[in-house]
Each structure stands twice: as structure tokens, then as C-alpha cells.
């Protein structure tokens, strides 16, 4: 049995062709439909008469003659609607389990959803926690739990210990890996928009990782890894600080500001990994200041044309900006800091002048860009820590002896560089040494040529007031 939801209403429509009855259920602002044949009503009634002693005469009898006539279907429709309404009135406090399942309360109604989740965790919760796997919850389930906790009532009202809300609270308190998967559009046959449902994550005390898809926003929680994909809105602020639109000026908690602020927003104190890939993000706003300890940042597969505000993330180590709309990245060291890994694959870069001072960079992916000039590699050839470089699928790759000419730009460090996922070979190093010798000879020749030009340009000019006389 499940606790009955106040205000539930039943309307029934019939499909004459298949004799399928469409039940329209309304619970507050939420509505959904359920389809059943008469045989389903009959099975429900058999269970209720056996378990709850419901009057057997309450269900309209099955009729064979003229069963497809429009008049019979319409009359049967009204009788079945009255039957369900009578059942709900007969059990105003606790709805029998067969009836809640029949009306899909476990899919769309708060009490039914939490009861179903509690029973699932009663049977599998301890096993799931011990396995340490990611557990998936829908926003509608989290919304239902949050609403239940706000109600002043016992955690178990129907007498079935398996559906006690305590099973959910015990599980969420110990869960470490959570995935919240919403839907784009209404849930099932209902009008429920999961992306707009508020819920409280404070019941999760031990989370290390959260993955969220198809949501408008998410509240602050104590986790170290946060994965936000397929969000409806397209700015980090709309996700991380949805209330920002209500304030003219806000600052992160703990930041001293010389200007007056109207709101102080809590920061994500433990968050070290943030994945916001595949979100149609077109700009990086100042809301990233709410995650000061982030080390791993994934903004791939968005619509970024510039990189802003990442200088506020002083702990950044790994940044993924692949498959965006970047055409140029100037003064990257002032925007990214002392990062070690940078993925810029799948953009439209044709120049590398902005990367010259990324002195801590160890790995750089520039594949699938528009790099065509070998001279651009000189901008990164002097980076002292760079060990992995990917230039595949760039126009530069069609240059004869491309690999050795690129490796030569790294001078004495050529042997330390892994180019396009392939380690440098001894043969390539020999060729690099030859290219370096040729380059040095060319530079020496250019210097000598420059000196000769200076000598050729010397002329003798008479000094004013100077006289010269010749004596025999």
C-alpha cells in the first residue's frame, strides 16, 4: 500500500478501435495518462477483492454482446471512471499497492516514487554501496525525496517497512558516485518537466563524483568531481549560479570585495574536476570563481570563440578546449596559468604566437586545426617541458619530411618530444642533427654576410675644419 496523494483525479477516455481506456490522472500540477484494457481492470479488481475485501459488485461486469458498439464503450467508460474514483475515496489515506501500480503512481506521484525507490534500496542498497559503482537517480526521484522530507510526518506511514524513507536516507548518506539523468522534455506520458524540478542534495554526505545531464541548474554539494552535460542553458553562470539574475552584484564566499555586493554565493570547496562538455557554451563567465580548487576542466564540444576568466582558477592543471570555435589564443599564459595539459584539437587555429610562455606545458594537442606554416612551430619549440605534441590532420602535415622539420624546431630537446603519438626514432634524430647543422651554417653565413654589408657601407666623410697638406 502507498500513501494516497491528496487531490488525485481520474478521467477516462476510450479508444473504440482497440477498446483501450486512457486514464487521465491529475495530482496537483502534475498530470499523466495510463492506458488499460478491461482485462487489466478485472485483474486489479481480483487483487483488491482478495487483499482489501473490496465489494466484488463494484466493477462493471464484462459484456460480450455489442462490446464494440459506441454506446457500450461510452457507458463502460463512465462506469470505469466511477469505479476508480470510488476506490480512491475508499482509501483516502493509504492507497493499496495494486491500485498505485495500476495508476503508475510509482512513476509520476511523489509518494509512489519514494516508496518504490525505498523498496529497491531495501533489497539492493547495501550491495550497491559495497560495489562502489555509479548509482543513477532521476531528478523526479530527487524532487520526490526532497518534498517528502519537507512534510511533517513519519518516514513510514503505510505499515510496510520496505518502503520506509529511512532506507533512502541511509543509502544517500553513504553514496560516493551519483549520476543524475534528466530528460529533454516531459517525462513519459506526463506534463512533468524534469529540468525545472528543484531538489536538495544535502542528504548526500559522502559524494566524490556527480554526473548531471539535462538539467537547468544544480545546487552546491561537497564532491570532488562534477560532470555537467546536455544542460539546457548555455552559460556556466546559469548552471552554477542560477540565482545570479536576481542580484545586481554577487561575489563568491570568502572573497573580499571593495565594491558593495547584494549576495554572497557559496563556493564548491572540494571540487577538483569539472566536465562541462557538450553544452553549447559560448562564453566563460565569472561564475567559474565559485570553483577555486578545480584542477581538471573539460569544456570540449562547446561554442567558445575566446577564453576568458580561467585566470581565476589558480589550481588548473589540465584544460580541454577541443572542438570549439577558437581561431586565435593570445597570451595564453595570462588566461590559463601554469597548466600541464592543453587540448586544442578540432578548432580553427592557424597561429601559435599566444602559446610561447606556457612554460609548464607537458602535453599539447593541436590536431585538426588550420596550421600550415612551419614557422609557427618555433613558437612552442622553446617550451622547456613539452613532451607530447599532436599536429595530425593539419595542413602542415603535407610538407615533405614534416616530422623531422617539426622536431628540428625543438633543438637539443628533439629526442624528448613524442610527435603525433609516435616516439622519435634514431633515424629521425640523425636527420634532425643534419638539419640543425645546416641551419647553423646558414645562420653563420647570414651573420658573415651581414658583417660584409656593414663594411661595404663604410664611407669617408671630410671633417669640418680639417685641412690636409702634402710635403715632398
Automatic annotation (TrEMBL):
Pfam families: LRR_4, PX. Residues 1-110 form the PX domain. One of its GO terms (cellular component) is cytoplasm. Keywords: Leucine-rich repeat, Repeat. The keyword Lipid metabolism does not apply. It comes from the Eukaryota. GO terms for molecular function: phosphatidylinositol binding. PANTHER family: NISCHARIN (PTHR15454:SF35), NISCHARIN RELATED (PTHR15454). This is PX domain-containing protein. It comes from Astatotilapia calliptera (Eastern happy).
